[in-house]
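Re: your question about LysR family transcriptional regulator

S., sorry for the slow reply, the queue was backed up all week. Below is exactly what I fed in.
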Amino acid sequence: MIGISPRQLEVFVAVAALGSVRAAAEQLHLTQPAASMALAGLERRIGVVLFDRARQRLHLNARGRAMLPQAREVLVRMQALERNAAASPDELLGELRIGASNTVGSYRVGELLGGFIALHPQASVQLLVDNTQTVLERVLDYSLDIGCVEGPAARSGLEALPWREDALCVCARPNHPLAQRKRLAPADFSGARWILREHGSATRALVERELSRLPVGVTVLELGNSEAIKQAVLAGLGVACLPRVAVRAELAAGELIILSTPFLDLRRELSLVLARGRYRGALLQALLDTAQAAPLNSAATTTARARGSRRATARK
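Result:
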Protein backbone atom coordinates (compact mmCIF):
# COMPACT_ATOMS: atom_id res chain seq x y z
CA MET A 1 0.00 0.00 0.00
CA ILE A 2 1.33 3.42 -0.97
CA GLY A 3 1.59 5.74 2.02
CA ILE A 4 1.55 9.50 2.34
CA SER A 5 4.39 11.11 0.42
CA PRO A 6 6.56 14.05 1.51
CA ARG A 7 5.36 15.95 -1.58
CA GLN A 8 1.74 15.59 -0.49
CA LEU A 9 2.58 16.95 2.95
CA GLU A 10 4.56 19.84 1.46
CA VAL A 11 1.61 20.80 -0.74
CA PHE A 12 -0.83 20.52 2.16
CA VAL A 13 1.29 22.75 4.41
CA ALA A 14 1.83 25.30 1.64
CA VAL A 15 -1.87 25.46 0.75
CA ALA A 16 -2.74 25.88 4.43
CA ALA A 17 -0.38 28.85 4.63
CA LEU A 18 -1.23 30.48 1.29
CA GLY A 19 -4.90 29.66 0.80
CA SER A 20 -4.69 28.43 -2.78
CA VAL A 21 -3.26 25.55 -4.77
CA ARG A 22 -1.89 27.96 -7.36
CA ALA A 23 0.15 29.92 -4.80
CA ALA A 24 1.37 26.69 -3.20
CA ALA A 25 2.45 25.35 -6.59
CA GLU A 26 4.42 28.52 -7.31
CA GLN A 27 6.14 28.37 -3.92
CA LEU A 28 7.09 24.72 -4.40
CA HIS A 29 8.05 25.15 -8.09
CA LEU A 30 5.36 22.72 -9.23
CA THR A 31 2.74 22.94 -11.93
CA GLN A 32 -0.74 23.68 -10.62
CA PRO A 33 -2.11 20.30 -11.83
CA ALA A 34 0.72 18.50 -10.00
CA ALA A 35 -0.04 20.35 -6.76
CA SER A 36 -3.78 19.67 -7.15
CA MET A 37 -3.10 15.97 -7.68
CA ALA A 38 -0.87 15.83 -4.60
CA LEU A 39 -3.52 17.44 -2.39
CA ALA A 40 -6.32 15.29 -3.81
CA GLY A 41 -4.17 12.19 -3.34
CA LEU A 42 -3.54 13.08 0.30
CA GLU A 43 -7.22 13.61 1.04
CA ARG A 44 -8.09 10.37 -0.76
CA ARG A 45 -5.38 8.45 1.13
CA ILE A 46 -6.55 9.53 4.59
CA GLY A 47 -10.23 9.53 3.67
CA VAL A 48 -11.10 13.05 4.81
CA VAL A 49 -11.42 16.49 3.25
CA LEU A 50 -8.94 18.93 4.79
CA PHE A 51 -10.15 22.24 3.37
CA ASP A 52 -13.37 24.15 2.92
CA ARG A 53 -13.68 25.94 -0.40
CA ALA A 54 -15.11 29.47 -0.28
CA ARG A 55 -14.70 32.49 -2.57
CA GLN A 56 -11.89 30.87 -4.55
CA ARG A 57 -9.91 30.34 -1.35
CA LEU A 58 -9.11 27.19 0.58
CA HIS A 59 -9.59 27.34 4.35
CA LEU A 60 -8.53 24.60 6.74
CA ASN A 61 -11.47 22.80 8.31
CA ALA A 62 -11.34 21.16 11.75
CA ARG A 63 -9.67 18.01 10.37
CA GLY A 64 -7.11 20.09 8.51
CA ARG A 65 -6.29 22.21 11.54
CA ALA A 66 -5.74 19.08 13.61
CA MET A 67 -3.45 17.56 10.99
CA LEU A 68 -1.35 20.66 10.20
CA PRO A 69 1.01 20.53 13.23
CA GLN A 70 1.65 16.83 12.63
CA ALA A 71 2.42 17.42 8.97
CA ARG A 72 4.85 20.20 9.83
CA GLU A 73 6.53 17.97 12.41
CA VAL A 74 7.01 15.16 9.88
CA LEU A 75 8.56 17.57 7.38
CA VAL A 76 10.88 19.01 10.02
CA ARG A 77 12.09 15.52 10.94
CA MET A 78 12.66 14.56 7.33
CA GLN A 79 14.64 17.74 6.65
CA ALA A 80 16.74 17.11 9.76
CA LEU A 81 17.41 13.54 8.62
CA GLU A 82 18.62 14.74 5.22
CA ARG A 83 20.85 17.44 6.69
CA ASN A 84 22.38 15.27 9.37
CA ALA A 85 23.11 12.48 6.90
CA ALA A 86 25.12 14.92 4.79
CA ALA A 87 26.92 16.65 7.66
CA SER A 88 30.12 15.59 9.37
CA PRO A 89 29.67 14.04 12.84
CA ASP A 90 30.86 17.20 14.60
CA GLU A 91 28.84 19.67 12.53
CA LEU A 92 25.21 20.66 13.04
CA LEU A 93 23.42 22.01 9.99
CA GLY A 94 19.91 23.25 9.42
CA GLU A 95 17.53 25.99 10.39
CA LEU A 96 15.83 26.88 13.65
CA ARG A 97 12.71 29.03 13.73
CA ILE A 98 12.68 30.81 17.08
CA GLY A 99 10.08 33.12 18.54
CA ALA A 100 10.83 35.68 21.23
CA SER A 101 8.58 38.01 23.14
CA ASN A 102 9.33 41.70 22.70
CA THR A 103 11.31 41.91 25.94
CA VAL A 104 13.47 38.89 25.16
CA GLY A 105 13.95 39.86 21.53
CA SER A 106 14.92 43.44 22.36
CA TYR A 107 17.16 42.93 25.40
CA ARG A 108 18.13 39.28 25.89
CA VAL A 109 18.76 37.92 22.42
CA GLY A 110 22.49 37.62 23.21
CA GLU A 111 21.80 35.43 26.23
CA LEU A 112 19.36 33.35 24.21
CA LEU A 113 21.35 32.83 21.02
CA GLY A 114 24.95 33.95 21.55
CA GLY A 115 26.37 30.66 22.76
CA PHE A 116 24.50 28.62 20.18
CA ILE A 117 25.61 30.75 17.22
CA ALA A 118 29.23 30.74 18.43
CA LEU A 119 29.28 26.94 18.69
CA HIS A 120 27.27 26.21 15.54
CA PRO A 121 28.10 28.90 12.96
CA GLN A 122 26.79 26.79 10.09
CA ALA A 123 23.27 26.70 11.52
CA SER A 124 20.69 29.17 10.28
CA VAL A 125 18.44 31.02 12.73
CA GLN A 126 15.20 32.82 11.96
CA LEU A 127 14.00 34.98 14.85
CA LEU A 128 10.43 36.25 15.11
CA VAL A 129 9.89 38.97 17.72
CA ASP A 130 6.25 39.48 18.69
CA ASN A 131 4.04 39.53 21.75
CA THR A 132 3.82 36.45 23.92
CA GLN A 133 0.40 35.32 22.73
CA THR A 134 1.47 35.29 19.08
CA VAL A 135 4.68 33.40 19.87
CA LEU A 136 2.77 30.74 21.82
CA GLU A 137 0.24 30.29 19.01
CA ARG A 138 3.02 29.77 16.49
CA VAL A 139 4.82 27.29 18.72
CA LEU A 140 1.57 25.35 19.07
CA ASP A 141 0.97 25.15 15.32
CA TYR A 142 4.63 24.24 14.65
CA SER A 143 5.33 27.45 12.70
CA LEU A 144 8.10 27.95 15.27
CA ASP A 145 10.43 25.34 16.71
CA ILE A 146 10.72 27.05 20.09
CA GLY A 147 9.72 30.26 21.82
CA CYS A 148 11.15 32.32 24.65
CA VAL A 149 8.55 34.37 26.49
CA GLU A 150 7.87 36.06 29.79
CA GLY A 151 5.21 34.90 32.18
CA PRO A 152 3.64 31.47 32.61
CA ALA A 153 2.83 29.61 29.39
CA ALA A 154 -0.34 28.11 30.83
CA ARG A 155 -1.69 26.38 27.74
CA SER A 156 -2.42 22.76 27.09
CA GLY A 157 -0.14 21.37 24.45
CA LEU A 158 2.87 23.40 25.59
CA GLU A 159 5.93 22.46 27.61
CA ALA A 160 7.63 25.35 29.44
CA LEU A 161 11.21 25.16 30.69
CA PRO A 162 12.22 27.85 33.23
CA TRP A 163 15.03 29.98 31.82
CA ARG A 164 15.50 33.27 33.68
CA GLU A 165 14.03 35.39 36.43
CA ASP A 166 13.18 38.95 35.48
CA ALA A 167 11.38 41.91 37.01
CA LEU A 168 9.79 45.18 36.02
CA CYS A 169 10.17 48.51 37.78
CA VAL A 170 7.91 51.56 37.89
CA CYS A 171 9.67 54.41 36.09
CA ALA A 172 9.07 58.14 35.84
CA ARG A 173 10.91 61.33 34.98
CA PRO A 174 12.80 62.87 37.92
CA ASN A 175 10.46 65.89 37.92
CA HIS A 176 7.30 63.78 38.08
CA PRO A 177 5.15 64.59 41.17
CA LEU A 178 5.45 61.00 42.43
CA ALA A 179 9.24 61.28 42.25
CA GLN A 180 9.19 64.14 44.74
CA ARG A 181 7.80 62.00 47.58
CA LYS A 182 10.25 60.41 50.00
CA ARG A 183 8.09 57.35 50.53
CA LEU A 184 5.25 56.18 48.32
CA ALA A 185 2.07 54.47 49.43
CA PRO A 186 -0.56 52.85 47.21
CA ALA A 187 -2.90 55.80 47.73
CA ASP A 188 -0.35 58.12 46.10
CA PHE A 189 -1.07 56.48 42.76
CA SER A 190 -4.71 57.59 42.69
CA GLY A 191 -5.31 59.13 39.28
CA ALA A 192 -1.82 58.26 38.03
CA ARG A 193 -1.40 58.37 34.27
CA TRP A 194 -0.15 54.98 33.07
CA ILE A 195 1.47 53.97 29.81
CA LEU A 196 0.85 50.26 29.17
CA ARG A 197 1.77 47.50 26.75
CA GLU A 198 -0.81 46.22 24.29
CA HIS A 199 -3.33 43.51 25.15
CA GLY A 200 -1.96 40.05 24.37
CA SER A 201 1.46 40.70 25.88
CA ALA A 202 2.49 38.91 29.06
CA THR A 203 3.85 42.21 30.36
CA ARG A 204 0.39 43.75 30.10
CA ALA A 205 -1.16 40.85 32.01
CA LEU A 206 1.37 41.15 34.85
CA VAL A 207 1.05 44.93 35.08
CA GLU A 208 -2.75 44.83 35.08
CA ARG A 209 -2.70 42.25 37.86
CA GLU A 210 -0.48 44.40 40.05
CA LEU A 211 -2.14 47.73 39.26
CA SER A 212 -5.42 46.22 40.42
CA ARG A 213 -3.93 46.60 43.93
CA LEU A 214 -3.74 50.38 43.52
CA PRO A 215 -6.39 53.10 43.39
CA VAL A 216 -7.88 53.70 39.96
CA GLY A 217 -5.56 55.42 37.49
CA VAL A 218 -5.81 56.50 33.87
CA THR A 219 -4.41 54.60 30.89
CA VAL A 220 -3.15 57.36 28.59
CA LEU A 221 -1.34 55.22 26.03
CA GLU A 222 -1.09 51.58 24.92
CA LEU A 223 2.07 50.80 22.96
CA GLY A 224 3.54 47.70 21.37
CA ASN A 225 7.03 47.58 22.87
CA SER A 226 9.13 48.74 25.80
CA GLU A 227 11.21 51.17 23.75
CA ALA A 228 8.13 53.11 22.68
CA ILE A 229 6.86 53.17 26.26
CA LYS A 230 10.23 54.40 27.51
CA GLN A 231 10.18 57.28 25.04
CA ALA A 232 6.68 58.23 26.18
CA VAL A 233 7.83 58.29 29.82
CA LEU A 234 10.86 60.38 28.85
CA ALA A 235 8.48 62.80 27.15
CA GLY A 236 6.61 63.22 30.43
CA LEU A 237 3.39 61.54 29.29
CA GLY A 238 3.05 59.35 32.36
CA VAL A 239 4.57 56.52 34.38
CA ALA A 240 5.14 52.93 33.29
CA CYS A 241 6.33 49.50 34.35
CA LEU A 242 9.45 48.68 32.33
CA PRO A 243 12.13 45.97 32.40
CA ARG A 244 15.14 47.36 34.26
CA VAL A 245 17.42 46.19 31.46
CA ALA A 246 15.47 48.49 29.13
CA VAL A 247 16.21 51.62 31.17
CA ARG A 248 19.81 51.08 32.33
CA ALA A 249 21.23 53.96 30.30
CA GLU A 250 18.45 56.36 31.27
CA LEU A 251 18.81 55.53 34.96
CA ALA A 252 22.58 56.06 34.81
CA ALA A 253 22.11 59.39 33.02
CA GLY A 254 19.50 60.59 35.50
CA GLU A 255 16.83 60.87 32.80
CA LEU A 256 14.54 58.40 34.57
CA ILE A 257 14.16 57.20 38.14
CA ILE A 258 12.63 54.11 39.68
CA LEU A 259 9.68 54.72 41.97
CA SER A 260 9.94 52.50 45.03
CA THR A 261 6.86 50.24 45.09
CA PRO A 262 7.49 47.39 47.55
CA PHE A 263 3.71 46.84 47.67
CA LEU A 264 3.80 45.55 44.08
CA ASP A 265 5.23 42.20 43.00
CA LEU A 266 6.56 42.76 39.49
CA ARG A 267 8.71 39.65 39.28
CA ARG A 268 8.23 37.24 36.41
CA GLU A 269 9.80 34.15 34.93
CA LEU A 270 11.13 33.84 31.40
CA SER A 271 10.57 30.42 29.85
CA LEU A 272 11.65 28.39 26.86
CA VAL A 273 8.48 26.97 25.33
CA LEU A 274 7.98 24.01 23.00
CA ALA A 275 4.99 22.09 21.70
CA ARG A 276 4.44 19.20 24.09
CA GLY A 277 5.91 16.00 22.71
CA ARG A 278 7.80 17.82 19.98
CA TYR A 279 10.74 15.99 18.49
CA ARG A 280 13.98 17.50 19.75
CA GLY A 281 16.48 17.11 16.99
CA ALA A 282 20.19 17.67 17.56
CA LEU A 283 19.93 21.32 16.51
CA LEU A 284 17.03 22.13 18.82
CA GLN A 285 18.64 20.29 21.72
CA ALA A 286 21.88 22.22 21.16
CA LEU A 287 19.97 25.49 21.43
CA LEU A 288 18.30 24.37 24.66
CA ASP A 289 21.64 23.34 26.13
CA THR A 290 23.48 26.56 25.27
CA ALA A 291 20.62 28.89 26.23
CA GLN A 292 20.22 27.29 29.64
CA ALA A 293 23.98 27.38 30.22
CA ALA A 294 24.37 31.04 29.17
CA PRO A 295 25.60 33.49 31.86
CA LEU A 296 22.98 35.76 33.35
CA ASN A 297 22.75 39.37 32.25
CA SER A 298 24.06 41.28 35.27
CA ALA A 299 21.46 44.04 35.14
CA ALA A 300 18.63 41.56 34.91
CA THR A 301 20.05 39.56 37.79
CA THR A 302 20.17 42.64 40.00
CA THR A 303 16.58 43.42 39.12
CA ALA A 304 15.38 39.92 39.84
CA ARG A 305 16.83 40.14 43.34
CA ALA A 306 14.71 43.17 44.18
CA ARG A 307 11.76 41.28 45.55
CA GLY A 308 9.16 43.40 47.31
CA SER A 309 6.06 41.45 48.19
CA ARG A 310 3.81 43.61 50.34
CA ARG A 311 0.28 43.93 49.06
CA ALA A 312 -1.97 46.98 48.84
CA THR A 313 -5.55 47.97 48.23
CA ALA A 314 -7.44 47.32 45.05
CA ARG A 315 -7.31 49.39 41.93
CA LYS A 316 -9.90 48.91 39.22
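Confidence is low (pLDDT under 50) at residues 298-316. The domain at 6-86 is CATH 1.10.10.10 (Arc Repressor Mutant, subunit A).

Happy to talk it through on Thursday.
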